[in-house]
Amino acid sequence: LRDRLKDPSLLREQCFIDGAWIGAGATVVTNPANGQELGKVPKMGADETTQAVEAAARAFPAWAKLTAKQRSNILRKWFELIVAHREDLALILTSEQGKPLAEALGEVDIGAAYVEFFAEEARRVYGETIPTQRADARLIAIKQPIGVCGAITPWNFPNSMITRKVSPALAAGCPVVLKPANETPFSALALAALAEKAGVPKGVFSVVTGHASAIGKVLCEHPAVRFVGFTGSTEVGKILYQQAAVGVKKLGLELGGNAPFIVFDDADIDAAVEGAMVSKYRNMGQTCVCANRIYVQDSVYDAFVDKLAAKVSAMKIGDGAEPGVTQGPLINEAAVEKTENHIADAVAHGAKVIVGGKRHALGGTFFEPTVLANVRPDALVAHEETFGPLAPVFRFKDEAEVIRLANNSPFGLASYFYARDIGRVWRVAEALESGMVGVNSGLITTEVAPFGGVKESGLGREGSHHGMEEYVEIKYVMMAGI
Ligand code: ADP
């Protein structure tokens, strides 16, 4: 991999703690497309995380004291460096994660867009003046950085999940200690190398790789940490929530989803098929906002399934770094097994395989993108996120029925629906229990809008000016004796 990078110094095999590159490679990182070793990263734990947190606590006052414009300028520089190195960052990303290079470039671009957005937002953290209740006093509310932050990120978006947390934190005046996913540390370390180059001061941004639970425990329990931002499984999110209770820390949690994707009979069916392709098969179905349950109304059901099947059959599967590939490998064997289980269970409940349905002839963790028809509401896939390239298509009769089915989940991250009737659009958008709704769009993530879930899908919002609020505390000041 190093030989294929324009700037080989972006591939770092050490952690970045308190402004220094330390540790030696211990854990092998492999390419999911071929199992080959890409390099090694250090296996660090509680001690090194404590060092990083203490360094962040030391760096905090000076970082918070800079003017918003000074912090903004450093973030802007980081943004420019990410853009300048986008091809290397994308190649690192595809190599450790598997997604097609075109998607990796897209992720680096949105990752950079978060940094750019929060570089701008840094200067707009306004407080308020409050009409007073007594004549001798004036009331104001100011916003101050919350303090040292921890960030724990997943492998499915190894670049943008980091910038979406780290850039608003830095913009607000908070230092961050990041633990990236063990499968994809090189994207994180490359971002740290560029942050260092951009002039982020020592201790303000550290990256620790290694024992997930040991690092996570320090981030949740160290008294200096005031906020932990996590994207990952609901299971781990709940562990962190409990750990953070000890010190009453604030948490941002972006957890699992089980997104319904609904096609009504008044929809533009071709547009709905396009939307389903993007929503379902992006990142081989490994995103928390991927359509997991596709509900199609009776009268357009067969047409939708035929058109979707034709598109899915035309996908090109292979190593994401090869030109024209639209589906890479899944992240690991467990992901393949879960997809297989969901298919077997749906078929046992009466579903029919229309396209795909099994491991791909390429071997490894490659899987055939799959479409299932006649899936019943009692199938496992109706209740659990697959996180793989499986599109189960359910049939429904009317609006009330599909809203009931869609909301029958403890999760509520994204929902999608296709319809043209304006009354229906409003009714359904309001009725769906999710933090985000895509109407006539299968792709809704953008740095300018608030991303997040309801129910067990999480707490808080990332992106937009709401994403900045996570990293500030409101302080009310009464000035009396006037
Ligand atoms: P996934 O199933 O998508 O890998 P996880 O929730 O296991 O999702 O992983 C998301 C992130 O959480 C990764 O960085 C992972 O290393 C980290 N992680 C896993 N277990 C723990 C834990 N007990 N405490 C803190 N972080 C953890």
TrEMBL record:
Report what the protein is called. Answer: Succinate semialdehyde dehydrogenase
Q: Catalytic residues per the record?
A: 254
* CDD domains in the cross-refs: ALDH_F5_SSADH_GabD
Q: Which organism is it from?
A: Rhodopseudomonas pseudopalustris
Q: Does the keyword RNA-binding apply?
A: no
Molecular functions (GO terms): succinate-semialdehyde dehydrogenase (NAD+) activity
Its GO biological process terms?
A: gamma-aminobutyric acid catabolic process
Pfam families reported in the protein's UniProt record: Aldedh
Which InterPro entries does the entry link to?
Answer: Ald_DH/histidinol_DH, Ald_DH_C, Ald_DH_CS_CYS, Ald_DH_CS_GLU, Ald_DH_N, Aldehyde_DH_dom, Aldehyde_DH_Superfamily, Succ_semiAld_DH
GO CC annotation, single: cytosol
Q: Which PROSITE patterns match?
A: ALDEHYDE_DEHYDR_CYS, ALDEHYDE_DEHYDR_GLU
This protein's UniProt keywords: Oxidoreductase
User: Origin, by domain of life?
Assistant: Bacteria
Establish whether keyword Oxidoreductase is in the entry: yes
